[in-house]
Amino acid sequence: MATESIDEVYIQEWLSQSEIFKILDEKMLFFALHENQFVYVNACFKENTGYVKNELIGKNIDDIIKDGFKRIRKERDSNYYKVKVYKKDGQSIWLDACIKNLKVKEKEIMLVVACNGTEYMEMKERLKMQEEEYADILNTQTEIIVRSTMDHKYIFVNDAYCRFFGIEKGKIPQGNTFSCVYKEDYLKVKNLLNSLTKENSLLQSEFRVIKADGTLVWTEWIGRVFYDQKGEAIAYQAIGRDITKRKKAQDALKKLQDELEITIEKRTEELHKANKELTMVNSYMNSILMNMSEGVAVIDELGNFKNLNRKLDKEWSSHVVKEIETYLKDIVLKKKNNDIHKMLKEKKSFYGSELTIPTTKGNLQFFISGDPIEDKEDVVNKGVIVYRPIAEVRDLVNRFSGAQARFKFRDIITKNKRMIKTVQIATRAALGDGNILIQGESGTGKELFAQAIHNHSNRCKGPFVAVNCGAIPRDLLGSELFGYVEGAFTGAKKGGKPGKFELASGGTLFLDEIGDMPYEQQVALLRVIQEKRIVRIGGSEVIPIDVRIICATNKKLYEAIKDGSFREDLYYRLNVISIHIPPLRKRREDILLLLEYFIKKTDRSWDGFVKHIDPLALEYLKKYNWHGNVRELENVVERLAHIVQDEIITIDYLPENIIKTYAKELGKETISVEKEAFTIKDIIEKERMRKEIKESDDILKLLRACNGNISKTAKLMGISRSTFYRKMKKYKIEEKL
After folding, report:
1. Are 239 and 221 in contact (CB under 8 A)?
2. How far is CA 540 from CA 363, 490, 529, 536, in A?
3. 371 burial class (0-12, 13-18, 19+ CB within 10 angstroms)?
4. Quick one: DSSP state of residue 331?
5. Which of 233, 263, 382, 504 sits CB 3.0–4.6 Å from 465 for a disulfide?
6. Which residue pairs from 705-713 have beta carbons closer than 8 angstroms and sit at least 24 positions apart in sequence?
7. Do 487 and 576 have their domain in common?
């Protein structure tokens, strides 16, 4: 013991002289042996083994290191060893040791410096076990698995790989892993491997390989490349499987897809064309629907409006729409015996029904048509209703039936002062709303005045309906004026018929030959004028009307009142404004104007039938009394258009009644006429010049009589000062004074 103790002390003194061993003594496991016995151990070694100092000093190394020192490195002069040390509690630890043999005081000393490598060894053992387990797992896979170096040398293949390529089981094949790759795909695979990086190391590809029996098959591979700490590729592993069947199916599918794509492309083009046409049709239909002159609404089974086209949406306020919806809910749909109810409940379409809806803005009257909208289950829950205002329908009927006002005041041709004054009265009367009575002989233009009044009034956009009271049979006049309902009498039309008052609502009703109206109908007419309402014959519904009445007659109604054929109270109701049209014989200055007008009008149809008129024939026409008035003159011109030859009117072509009536007064021996024939324009121009010369002479005489007083002269002539000044300038009166 004394020797061991001396040795230990000696070794400690020797070691203390070395700075490096001072560091090792603190950081590493360190001990010294002499003749295989511990002569020195540091604190780190004692701590890792669980022994105390006295238990180790003098203890034989073989007692705690039973397997001896296993050299780690295989070099001949290597001093690195793996040491398995058993701790005091029987557990073991692994040390990575470095051994140095030295002579100290002629004594052989073994110095051992080590670090604890137990964790590394345990990890190595676990890794080995995991590799074995991993290899077992890979060998049980049906996919073919291969691991190779980057120069394509085999590292590992699983059993499935061996079976697939015909390699002996359990043996890693020699040679190049690329030897099985089909030559046409070789470059593709090589380039793929070369393109991978540490950041993008995943390998995925499809290529063909050749099996041991020479079969060419398609394979699919997925794997990755492994890199070392320097970032250099060291190996790759891939998992593959046979996809030949899939490839064939894909090829077949591709062919089918190509064919299908061609078919789809063709069909798509057809559908695109059809869709374009459908879109255009839909656009057209929507445009037509939204811009229809009729109102269109979709109504549900409860009477609610779902959609309105532009006409209804713009023309109806939301308040009026609400009133109409309420009316449909409370009145129409609750009464089962009506067209709208039948449309929604019985799927029955209807056309041309009349519907009157009371609103705060007055009654709205429509002709309506409807069609049910059915869903896939054939359940009707909506319907489309087309609304056409009755006033518009009647206006349309009037236009196509000839009941329309074509003439205006500018169409009245005259130079006659009395006629001009009559036109002025009619023009002012047109702006009001009172009833008008037009009197005059047949053919003077009573209806022309009536139409002009209508076109000049605020009702010009409304209908103009004309009724000849003398041409309608007595029994039919009532139904013609007031209309009738279905079944009112034998022969009544289905659905009834509106009367002229309804058709003229919002416009003008012209009652021609009012003096020939039967007495009993005069009573009904008076009642309508007073109440502004009618009831159709056979009906009970009161229909409000808004009509201005213009009457015309060639009879003297005041005398008819005396003999009891015309009601006096009706006369005063109609004669609010009285207009008297003078006959043509009392405005002879208009004969030439009208003659020229009718010749021009007839020329358009007869290609210029006349260019000249014989002065004698003109005198006959001017002196004739024209009992048929303007209408007779127009008829004479039309007669001449059929018979005149050589484009000149002579007395030979005039009607016999004109020649006979004034043959004595207009004999050739008593009349001084021009020998040459003149055109109508020449004659009118001569007539105009003659009148202007006469008017100039009259102004000059009157001005001299008034001693040059312009105001007095203008007053005597019945014209304004400004007009008088214009006439003086026109006729150069000042130069003649």
Report:
1. yes
2. 16, 18, 19, 7
3. middle
4. I
5. 504
6. 708/737
7. yes
CA angle, residues 694, 696, 701, in degrees to nearest 5: 95
CA distance 334 to 324: 14
For 348, other C-beta atoms within 10 Å of its C-beta total: 14
Domain match, 308 and 375 both: yes
Contact call for residues 297 and 385 (beta carbons, < 8 A) = yes
Answer yes or no: is 262 within a domain: no
Q: Which two tokens stand for residue 666?
A: 């207009």
**End-to-end Cα, the chain, rounded Å:** 182
Q: Please, what is the Cα angle at 174 between 172 and 178, to 5 degrees?
A: 105
Angle ∠(476,480,484) on CA atoms, nearest 5: 95
Over residues 420-474, the pLDDT tens digits come to 999 999 999 999 999 999 999 999 999 999 999 999 999 988 889 999 998 888 8
Give how many domains the chain has, as a whole number: 6
Cα distance between residue 527 and residue 412, in whole Å: 34
Supply the angle between the helices 680-705 and 721-731 in degrees, to the nearest 10. 110
- Written as one letter, the residue type at 129 is M
At residue 548, the pLDDT reads: 94
**38-96: pLDDT as tens digits:** 888 888 888 888 888 788 888 888 888 876 776 655 555 567 788 888 888 888 888 88
pLDDT of 2: 38
Q: What is the pLDDT of residue 448?
A: 94
CA–CA separation, 442 and 157 (whole Å): 126
In 292-389, which residue ranges form alpha helices assigned H by DSSP? Answer: 310-315, 318-327, 339-346
444 lies in the same domain as 503: yes
Distance CA 427, CA 447 (A): 15
∠ CA 270-274-279, rounded to 5°: 145
The token pair at 569 is 């109270």
**Of 29, 32, 63, nearest in space to 46 by CA:** 29
**What is d(CA 484, CA 478) in angstroms, rounded to the nearest whole number?**
9
* Domain identity same for 101 and 165: no
- Residues in the chain with pLDDT values less than 50: 1-6, 402, 666-677
